[in-house]
Amino acid sequence: MVRRALLSAGGTGGHLFPAQALAQELKSRGWRIHLATDQRAQKFAADFAADDIHVIRSATFAGKSPMALVKTFGVLAGGYFASRRLISTIEPDVAVGFGGYPTVPPLLAAVHKGVPSILHEQNAVLGRANTFLAGRVNALATGFPLAKSEHKHVVTGNPLREIVHLAARLNYETPAEGGRLRLLVFGGSQGARFFSQIMCEALASMTPDLRDRIDLTMQTREEELEPTKSVLSKLDMQAKLAPFFGDMPMRIAKSHLVMCRSGASSVSELALIGRPAILVPFPTALDDDQGANAARLETEGGAVLVRQKDMDAPRLTAMLEDALKNPKQLAIQAANAKRAGVADASQRLANLVEAQLRVKER
Fold it and tell me: Is the model's pLDDT at 362 over the cut of 60?
């Protein structure tokens, strides 16, 4: 008998990548996969192992005015009834949600139609959409132990794409004493203006002999690309700059040190691949989910957590100089990060999916 899973995720990489990894695992077990998401997912859809992709309208509570709230509820209600029709058509055996408001209509419809339902929370803090759904589903899986939650949950780790597992096969190369340091800097799917600015300031204040030993690869916002190139050119640095790197896991694997935000996917990839990192959480997140993620890896000794308000050019300069002078410490951090990685997260989550199916069949 063919088994069908309805996966639902917000249309960003942070939600879609773990859904993609689970889809690949379930497909290998003979499942048919349907993905419910929003219009933003189009740039990721080509690589998604789904038999069909269904765009469901959704909205985020971005404003507090009565008119904005009415509009948001109207869109969500439309998505809910569209999801009910979709579930009646494809008759999934299990529904799995990965967070973001586009998860709400399909998962709520699945619950109301009696479909066994699972939520996966990537972060160490439940997001708002998952908080709303957590008490309604059959099981809650998480990428990290939750920092605080009243809900019983199973820690599966974050399912990661095949490219991440391939990158994880590359061993860490400890920088040679007095040698070059391969530094990778990125700020999530949209980049981070702060990183471009602080990195240029820190490099400018370094002594030329140390600065010349850094091979920099940095994700830079489109509008910051030329100004950043100009600054680095004046410092005689030939850095690799781009608004987006499609092969980020491999670039992580080839780096000696990473500086980045601490979204769940980034932290999980750093751990699985095993690379030392300076983690600077996104500062305005409502629930400080990135701070909680970063704290998990710092506790394992695989990263250093620095709040953006505490990160200035002198501090970053000192951290880079320390990395250049103490390569063995980077190797220790890399090994610590590697031990924190969860290589079988996709299998764990797929096992949980199939366990819910067995409960349904009893």
Answer: no
